[in-house]
Protein: MFS transporter
Amino acid sequence: MPGAPSARSFEPPKAPPRPTLAGNAALGVTQIVLWGGTFFLTAVVSDPIVAETGWPQAMVVGALSLAIFVSGLPAPVVGRMIRRHGGRPVLVAGATIIAAGLVLMAVAQSLPVFLLAWVIAGLGMSAALYDPLFAAIGQAYGAAARGAMTQIAISSGFAVSLCWPATRFLVDHVGWRGACLTYAILSVALVVPLFAWALPARSRAAVAPAAAPRPHEPAGSTEAARLPAERLLAVTFTMAAMIMTAASVQLLNLLQTLGVGATAAVALTGLIGPAQVGVRVVELAFGRRAHPAWSLLLSSASVGLGLLLLATLPSLAWLAMLLYGAGNGMRTVVRGTLPLALYGQRDYAAAMGRLARLPLLGQAITPLTCGYIAEWFGLMPLLEVMLAVAAINLGLSLWVFSFAMRRPGAQA
Structure:
């Protein structure tokens, strides 16, 4: 009948997508595979590579720093792409690019080609690891993303414990080139389908036009309102990332310098993974009603206290490892949840892209810096530098905390 509203006009609006436990577990698996084929690969394959090729050890190990540096450069662009197009196509592309880098790595017959492979892998890392993944699910799920982030972090929390033995097994049976190819195959055959299945194709927030800044937010770029404390937040994330990287590179050597035997040192570092997972379980069960700024504060304090115990009471190294692991476990989650609480769903992905660059660049220079400090001054001065950075980071975290808790809607 002319003028009558169509049946389509009576259709109720579709409910926004919600994260699922199965989907979050699947996304956790993607991170185990991708971190195993990038960040955690060098520690196992560097010696076999040097033995076969004769390439300088420093260049082989430094290739990871090159990849991390490269991954930080396009991070803001990746965030804007997720905001405009949703997370699924961006993360699928990132995993595919990582696979291409790993294939080139496996067939590299010269050092320049090997380094180029890591540059390609670094470009993929910028679009497929934790930061873009958290940006994608925050963009898609809004307030419901906090629990999803924690569940993903729980399921991927044993990545080091799983990937190092698995990579060692591959190197022993198919060589380092076969190990790289295996991770490339897993990236395409497992990770890409899991991203395509577990991530929404497109979120309403990803296609919504930019709205005017909310009354309590200053006007910013056309992509997202920038908070006054954005640079400060980026610095706190960078310091935490640098401490984590320094510990992953030098922790075993530090423990042995403090008088811990090699076998005992390996056993002590094995406490870090369970501590990371344990604190994420606690966060999932009890932390949902607390503002994520509390997690930032507790993370910084826990890492700092762990390093302080290690420096002053080596006999309590086991407790130091638990505290450090707990703080580092919270750090992974808070990097996703705190920006979501501060920016909101609409601006979150672009903000995550901006916030990701500085920590990645800091991580890239950390192994080289730690190596020079250890060589010129010794491992104990290196531990003192790490402790000083942790103390500064705790002070900055208090500053961020006070800012976050003053914002409208913050929960005590």
